[in-house]
Each structure stands twice: as structure tokens, then as C-alpha cells.
Amino acid sequence: MTKNTPNKTPVRIAAVITMILLFFVAVLSVLLEMVALNGASEKQGMFAIGTSLLCNGLGIVLFGLFSGWFTKFVMARFNWNPTLAVVIAVAAGVIIGSAASLLSLMLSIPLAGIQ
């Protein structure tokens, strides 16, 4: 192992923690969407929730991978402590992923034809 090659354990830890936290954000987003869709037809509501779940699922995977990549990047490039790199990468992944979840929530309702 060379000097600048980081250990894979912090990378995996950051990715898994980010995915778990974004899963809870997605569950909260779906519950919020169910409350927001109160009064809409079942067909429109299921389409909106399905669209939101698809976007959240893709976001969980993509931002988990981003968090792992970012951990590896800051450990190799800036020689950060692995613990600090994991904390910063998880925070960045969860914040960006939560924003993407909110965006999917705001886009899925108009896409379903609900006004």
C-alpha cells in the first residue's frame, strides 16, 4: 500500500451510513407526501408516490456512492484523518441527498397531474 492510497474501510463506512440516513429521509419524505396528497385520487397519488420513491431510491444509491468517493478523495488528496473525512462526507451526502429528496417531492406532485 502506498502512502496516498486510503484504506477502503472508511470509504465503505461513509457510503453505508449515508445510505441508511438517506433511507430514513426517504421514508419521512413519503410520509410527508401522503399527507400532502390527502384528497387526491388514488391513481394520481400512487403515481406521485411511485415517482418520488424512484427518485429517492436513485438518490440513495448515487449519494451513497458520492459519499464514498468524497471520503476517498479527501483522504488521498488532502491527507485528512479518516474519521474527519467520513463525518464530512456523510454530512455532505446527507445534505445534498435531502435536498434532492425535497426536489423529487416537489416535482412528483405536478407530474401526477395534481394542481
Detailed description of the structure:
- This protein is mainly alpha-helical.
- It has one domain (8-111).
- It is 83% helix and 0% strand.
- It is built from three helices and no strands.
- It has helices spanning 8-36, 42-77, 82-111.
- Helix 1 runs antiparallel to helix 2.
- The chain is elongated, with a radius of gyration of 17 Å.
- The termini are far apart.
- The mean pLDDT is 93.
Layout of secondary structure:
Elements: H1 8-36, H2 42-77, H3 82-111
Give descriptors for this structure.
single chain, 115 residues, mainly alpha
| Outline type | elongated
Taken together, the total number of domains comes to 1
Radius of gyration from CA coordinates:
17 Å
Range of strand content: under 5%
Using DSSP, what is the number of strands? 0
Assign a percent range to the helix content: over 70%
Low-confidence stretches at least 5 residues in length (pLDDT < 50)? none
Mean pLDDT value: 93
How do the SSEs run, as a string of H and E?
HHH
The largest sheet is: none
Structural category is: mainly alpha
The span between the termini is 58 Å
Q: Give the oligomer, counting copies of the same chain as homo and different chains as hetero.
A: single chain
Q: What is the overall number of helices?
A: 3
